[in-house]
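Re: [ENG-882] Designed sequences occasionally contain unexpected residues at chain ends

Forwarding the minimal case from QA. Structure tokens:
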């Protein structure tokens, strides 16, 4: 049926929100690296996805990626002395999945990395570790050595919060600040904001206030526009600075090549 196959916009996850009940909250997010909806089965999985989706080196993320070769997972389980997971009420081996299969581009070379997401307390359970061992060894056989388990402690919380904050301004058409504005008008305002930022005479917040005054925008519209530029990596800042201090930053760079068309 095409599940667990394809790349980029054509990929269909092996497990969807209708076929799994999760202990966590199911989230549906719009991807930015690849513009398609993603279904994540816990808050932690969602947060890991948000971080990966913002990485420059990442070009594709495929969630709930299947280990389709059941003969191999079964053989590995036997060799490792581990009971292979089975479908409830049967002895049929399940098709195991990895949470996130990530394609990265480094030094002009594409490679796959696998990220499995679990709360740290789950790592105290022998059965959880056994499944991870099968998963890790499977990908080794398939030529993927970069396999890691991500816990909440591995995420940079300040960076995550900043990415989530600027991503709220990804699409100006969804903002009441610019309702009724033509694309041409939006581009004119963005161009003037970039001119102010390029002078580097004041903070991001200072430039935002000036653009509001110049164009008679509602209070908050200027900083929203700065977040929009940050989400598209036109305005480059230290996202490890506390969220409340981000607008006060004077140390930033600009990359006009990333301006959305």
């Amino acid at each position: 049926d095409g599940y667990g196959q394809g790349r980029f916009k054509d990929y269909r996850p092996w497990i969807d929100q209708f076929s799994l009940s999760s202990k966590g909250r199911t989230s549906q997010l719009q991807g930015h690296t690849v513009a398609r909806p993603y279904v994540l089965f816990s808050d932690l999985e969602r947060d890991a996805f948000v971080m990966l989706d913002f990485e420059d080196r990442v070009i594709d993320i495929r969630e709930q990626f299947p280990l389709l070769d059941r003969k191999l997972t079964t053989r590995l389980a036997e060799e490792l002395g581990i009971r292979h997971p089975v479908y409830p009420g049967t002895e049929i081996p399940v098709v195991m999945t990895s949470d996130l299969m990530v394609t990265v581009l480094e030094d002009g070379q594409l490679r796959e990395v696998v990220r499995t997401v679990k709360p740290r307390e789950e790592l105290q359970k022998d059965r959880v570790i056994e499944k991870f061992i099968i998963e890790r060894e499977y990908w080794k056989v398939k030529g993927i050595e970069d396999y890691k388990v991500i816990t909440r402690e591995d995420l940079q919380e300040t960076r995550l919060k900043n990415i989530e904050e600027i991503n709220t301004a990804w699409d100006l058409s969804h903002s009441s600040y610019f309702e009724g504005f033509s694309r041409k008008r939006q581009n004119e305002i963005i161009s003037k904001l970039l001119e102010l930022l390029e002078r580097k005479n004041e903070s991001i917040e200072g430039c935002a206030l000036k653009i509001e005054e110049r164009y008679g925008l509602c209070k908050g519209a200027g900083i929203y526009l700065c977040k929009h530029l940050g989400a598209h990596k036109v305005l480059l800042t230290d996202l490890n600075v506390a969220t409340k201090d981000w607008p006060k930053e004077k140390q930033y760079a600009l990359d006009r090549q990333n301006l959305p068309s």
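QA comment: On inspection the terminal residues look reasonable. The first strand starts at residue 27 and ends at 30. Proposing we downgrade this to a documentation issue.
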